[in-house]
Amino acid sequence: MTKILLAGVAVIDIVMSVDEMPRKAEKYRARDAAIVGGGCAANAAVAVARLGGEALLCARVGRDPIGAMIVAELEAEGVDCTRVRRLDKGRSSFSSVFVDAGGERQIVNFRDMELSFDAGWLEADMPQNVDAILADTRWPQGAAVAMRAARRLGVPGILDAEAPVREAEEALAHASHIAFSAQGLRDFAGMDDLDRALATARAETGAWVCYTNGAKGVFFLDGASGGRVPAFAVDIVDTLGAGDVWHGAFALALGEGQAEAEAIRFANAVAAIKCTRFGGREGTPDRIEADRFLRAAA
């Protein structure tokens, strides 16, 4: 079983399905609702586990009911939470999420800055037998430890680069693969021209780089060569968690030894299936379904 270590944030999402995004200070009625686990690394870990990999999550939560919910959901998905720290000081993170009729989402997240960002404990408890490591920029200190470990172990070190990206400078310097969102790439490069921004990211970091851009697909650059892997056309219901699930699938595929373009196509399929279902990461497919989708699209 391919083993992926993931470092970053884990939260609870309170998700409301609405006809359109609220714009006034009034009461609104949701068409549907869900309380689900969320967070970049946690969602990616669930994707890895459902797709047949072994997911080892490194994260920080409070010693509170939200933290207990986060860990219980992840363990129920088969995620190894041995390295999820329950901290006495600080509250666990949670989000209020609206998903409109077109599947677009609006997120208001609470993150308690009293919850320690320290990652020294992770350095002392880093496994030595993983096939790839994925970290998100929401926990810069953990990402730095994770990317240094990936380089030391000689395995892919994938950074999920979301704004504010520059907070994770050390992780950027050690990552072998940096996968930006379009927003994250604009934030990193300080420009709207995404192709130019990607070239800037490649020149500055020396890493293999890409950015995900929704229905437009994924654009990548490796040295002087690059390209685009198109997204799959599906009926969008809910985009919440799609990027996180994409990163988990991409990391698993690299850990399995797939080439980058092949790994992107696999991740695109997984994210596309997720987008057809309401409820954030609850819509993440298993490996059989993802492989069936890819065969049908061939």
From TrEMBL:
Superkingdom of origin organism: Bacteria
InterPro entries named in the record: Carboh/pur_kinase_PfkB_CS (IPR002173), PfkB_dom (IPR011611), Ribo/fructo_kinase (IPR002139), Ribokinase-like (IPR029056)
Keyword annotations of the record: Kinase, Transferase
Carbohydrate kinase PfkB domain ranges (all copies): 1-286
The protein's name in its UniProt record: Sugar kinase
Record-level Gene Ontology MF annotations: kinase activity
Family, per entry: Belongs to the carbohydrate kinase PfkB family.
Any one annotated GO CC term: cytosol
Biological process, per Gene Ontology: phosphate-containing compound metabolic process
Transmembrane segments: none
Entry-linked PANTHER family: SUGAR KINASE, SULFOFRUCTOSE KINASE
